[in-house]
Amino acid sequence: MTDNEYVPFLSKITEIIRHTDIEYTFRMTYDGDVKPGQFFEVSIPKYGEAPISVSGIGDGTVDLTIRKVGKVTNEVFEHTMGDHLFLRGPYGNGFDLDDYRGRELVVVAGGTGLSPVRGVVDHFARHPEEVKGMTLITGFKSPADILFFGDLARWKQSMEVILTVDCADDGDKPAACQIGLVTEHLPKVKLGDISRAVAIVVGPPAMMRFSVLGLLELGFAEKNIWISQERKMCCGIGKCGHCKIGDVYVCLDGPVFNYTKGRTLID
Amino acid sequence: MGFKLSREAFDAVLQSWTDDYVLFAPKRFEQGGIYSDTDCIRYGQVQAVDEIVFDSKSLYSFKEALLPVSETLFFFTEETVKEADPPKKGAIIFLRSCDLHGLKRLDEIYLRNGPEDAYYRRLRDRVQFVLMGCPHSFENCFCVSMGTNQATDYAISVDVEGDGFLVDCKSEAWAERITPRAEAELDVTPRHVTENAVTVNIPETLTIQVASSRIWDEYDNRCIDCGRCNFVCPTCTCFTMQDLFYTENGRVGERRRIWASCMVDGFTDVAGGGSYRKKNGERMRFKVLHKVYDFKVRTGSHMCVGCGRCDDVCPEYISFSNSVNKLDQAMKEVSGR
Ligand SMILES: Cc1cc2nc3c(=O)[nH]c(=O)nc-3n(C[C@H](O)[C@H](O)[C@H](O)COP(=O)(O)OP(=O)(O)OC[C@H]3O[C@@H](n4cnc5c(N)ncnc54)[C@H](O)[C@@H]3O)c2cc1C
Ligand code: SF4
Ligand code: SF4
Ligand code: FES
């Protein structure tokens, strides 16, 4: 039998971390190469499949941070620790840490967009000497939507972290949290040499568009900005055609794109 | 090696294949045509040469022999999956030059665009191709413009000649079966056309900028997003996966893939109600540029092979070749801005 990419393998849930009512991280057993920004197809017989980004990489495990929004993801939430899920992957290009090493790095993440980029942030939080400086700007709708709250406190020790929510009633907002869209906080980023600084932008389409514009305005070069795209996916391996934009297959050539390429994509 | 064969002799050769192969060829389905009271010529299994339609174009292409409309990938229970068995026999597919070129496009996607597709591979390795010569062009064909009017990578070619057939055989094993049955040995070149009534011009200067042209707007209303143009196309390869379960409460069932169309609603839907290319004109633009622009950027050759089937089938009389021929004007429009 040839390698059959469509046939999923079983992976055990070793831990579940609850962030919000509808967003949990499932720690799954997985041995093999995987990069931050890549994704797995969570494949549940009878319910179908959903592409989910790798939000963390451990020793023999990967983290999948899943938002409960529909058929497949609802069913995932019916599972508990010790249960198994079918997966296939990893797919996609992922982030290449070498693109950011030795540079000043700014990561702008909106909502669940923090999960695909979490592996990159976590890596440089553990190895701050590998970058010249690092800032994370991460925004959520409201205080109740904040993801990876525990990580944020830890990351603060080795990088500049700006946590912001779109709006909040006084009182239910954590002390370290600011108010306003991520774009409003962009000008606060302190950089030595903007022409060499690099940035990663991940989040909902409108947030990405305005954040990139904001970065360009600050003086970032197009070639120094990376974005991660989400599209409808079915196969994850360049066959089904659902994720295609122009000459690009998001599942193969992305989901991470340098902005010089990302800019040219017309759906 | 070339031969002249009587109809009976060719039928005997064909029968000798059926031990190891299933035969797919264009055949006549009564009353199945696009207009009422017309027949539909499309692919199906054949047992005898008389079933094969040599004198018309098939409405659907050969692709369903390699990519079934609905294909079971695996069977599942809650905690097991088992790959579906391949068909027991190999296949012999009768097809024209344009379709044989179409095969290269399918190979490009299913064998080279990302990892190999195991289901396609296991069929593809067991298929032989019989080229059906084209004595003349059919309606809407523009293979000459696409450079697909002639093909050489067949196991055997077949042309109708009087009551019999002219055959060029490239397979030694098959030549051995044919030689004792042949009326004569002679040089045979499969018939092919050198001109079509329809021609297309794909501008050298084409860039993705053309996406912003106004030519696409006319299809917003004209196209009814039925997807037929995709389903008949030999080079459309998209699918969607679906899980079928045998009982409502059980977890036993199968996962299938079924043909999908970029012209039909839902193709790009993401959770939360988002979708891309809501307008039919945008979908037309996406399809046309895939066929004659971006597939070439990616692979080096155009996806479209000029079979004209999309024009044959469109219920709204939308002509793909016309839309391609508007690209030159559209490029002038967008570069003038
Ligand atoms: C590269 C990539 C990475 C992703 N990473 C994450 C992640 O880390 N965490 C997370 O919670 N979500 C992520 N998503 C979104 C997630 O895949 C969808 O929310 C999920 O497919 C919804 O499936 P459902 O069956 O629960 O919802 P339904 O709405 O019932 O799904 C309906 C159908 O649409 C398809 N679909 C719906 N939304 C999407 C989408 N955004 N992208 C592709 N197909 C979709 C599904 O495959 C399904 O067939 C990612 C999407 C992509 C493309
Ligand atoms: S786009 Fe139309 S003419 Fe071209 S290969 Fe497909 S069906 Fe044939
Ligand atoms: S172009 Fe014609 S065949 Fe294709 S989707 Fe539109 S109406 Fe249907
Ligand atoms: S998800 Fe199927 S081609 Fe990309």
Name some characteristics of this structure.
heterodimer; A: 267 residues; alpha/beta; Elongation Factor Tu (Ef-tu), domain 3; Rossmann fold; six-stranded antiparallel beta barrel; 19% helix; B: 337 residues; alpha+beta; 2 domains; eight-stranded mixed β-sheet; globular; binds flavin-adenine dinucleotide; binds iron/sulfur cluster; binds FE2/S2 (inorganic) cluster
Q: What does this entry show, briefly?
A:
The complex is a heterodimer of chains A (267) and B (337). By secondary structure, chain A is an alpha/beta fold. Chain A is built from seven helices and 15 strands.
Global structural class of chain B: alpha+beta
The overall pLDDT average of chain A reads 93
- What strand line-up does the widest sheet of chain B have? 3-2-6-7-8-9-1-10
Number of domains of chain A: 2
Compile the SSE list and pairings.
The complex is a heterodimer of chains A (267) and B (337).
Chain A (H helix, E strand, L loop, with lengths): L8 E10 L4 E7 L9 E6 L3 E10 L3 E7 L3 H6 L7 E8 L12 E7 L3 H13 L6 E8 L8 H7 L4 E6 L11 E3 L2 H4 L12 E5 L2 H14 L6 E4 L15 E2 L2 E2 H4 L2 E3 H4 L5
Parallel strand pairs in A: 7-8, 7-11, 8-9, 9-10, 11-12
Antiparallel strand pairs in A: 1-2, 1-6, 2-5, 3-4, 3-6, 4-5, 12-15, 13-14
Chain B lengths: L1 E4 L1 H11 L3 E9 L10 E7 L23 E7 L4 E3 L6 E6 L1 H16 L5 H7 L2 E6 L10 H4 L9 E6 L2 E6 L2 H7 L5 E2 L32 H5 L5 H5 L6 E7 L7 E7 L20 H20 L9 H5 L6 H6 L1 H9 L2
Parallel strand pairs in B: 2-6, 6-7, 7-8
Antiparallel strand pairs in B: 1-9, 1-10, 2-3, 4-5, 4-12, 8-9, 11-12
The structure holds flavin-adenine dinucleotide, iron/sulfur cluster (2 copies) and FE2/S2 (inorganic) cluster.
